[in-house]
Inverse folding.
């Protein structure tokens, strides 16, 4: 179960990434953030973001055009 | 933060459409732990003005720009009016304001951030904004025309900022 949820539905690049960064910066290491996005580009972008920043992308799920990314803050 | 994480952008264009790339790349870069500096010179200075209503997109000499309606029936929204309308018509007063308005509507519909929003996020994430002092004076700007947090310097400072790092972009 996520500690925090960020709903970035309807937002387009680069807002999901910027909002994810902001949300993570307010959280403690080890906490889990769920990001909800409707931007198909965010699938690759969130992956790249986690890759670069070291945060752990635990899972990506898609449900009818809604993407849910579960990220563990480092 | 290590020096090789550094990134710089030289922003030279001052139209509504070209306001986006520097702020999008800079804000994303800094979100991905890069240390980012934007050097605004010549028309790029417009992007730092408090009053962004001066930023317009012109269809004149902008042949790559798709011109589609942001509303109306699907078939209508698919039509690209750009190549269909003779360029001479775009010189009629008011067309620039109309096209800028249509682009803003399209962006709103697609959930694209506003220029001010991207710009303030850049500042919140500590992107360094440098305005080229020479062009500030050349174009008769007053320093109070610009948003807070802007540094004024010259090309030498750009080189100092760009002396490390792998990403140095000209826009």
């Amino acid at each position: 179960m996520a500690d925090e949820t960020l709903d970035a539905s309807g937002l387009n690049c680069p807002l999901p990434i910027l909002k994810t960064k902001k949300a993570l910066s307010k959280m403690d290491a080890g906490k889990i953030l769920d990001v909800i996005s409707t931007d198909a580009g965010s699938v690759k972008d969130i992956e790249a973001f986690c890759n670069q920043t070291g945060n752990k992308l635990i899972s990506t799920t898609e449900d009818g055009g809604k993407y849910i990314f579960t990220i563990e803050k480092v | 933060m290590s020096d090789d994480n550094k990134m710089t952008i030289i922003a030279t264009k001052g139209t509504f459409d070209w306001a986006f790339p520097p702020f999008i790349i800079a804000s994303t870069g800094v979100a991905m732990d890069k240390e980012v500096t934007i050097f605004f010179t010549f028309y790029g200075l417009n992007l730092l003005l408090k009053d962004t209503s001066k930023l317009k997109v012109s269809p004149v000499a902008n042949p790559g720009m798709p011109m589609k309606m942001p509303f109306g029936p699907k078939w209508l929204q698919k039509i690209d009016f750009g190549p269909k309308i003779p360029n001479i018509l775009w010189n009629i007063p008011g067309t620039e304001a109309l096209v800028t308005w249509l682009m803003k509507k399209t962006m709103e519909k697609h959930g694209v951030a506003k220029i001010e929003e991207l710009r303030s996020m850049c500042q919140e994430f500590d992107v360094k904004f440098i305005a080229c002092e020479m062009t500030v004076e050349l174009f008769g700007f007053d320093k109070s025309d610009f948003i807070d947090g802007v540094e004024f310097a010259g090309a030498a400072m750009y080189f100092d900022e760009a002396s490390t790092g792998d990403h140095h972009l000209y826009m």
Summary: The longest strand of chain B covers residues 6-11.
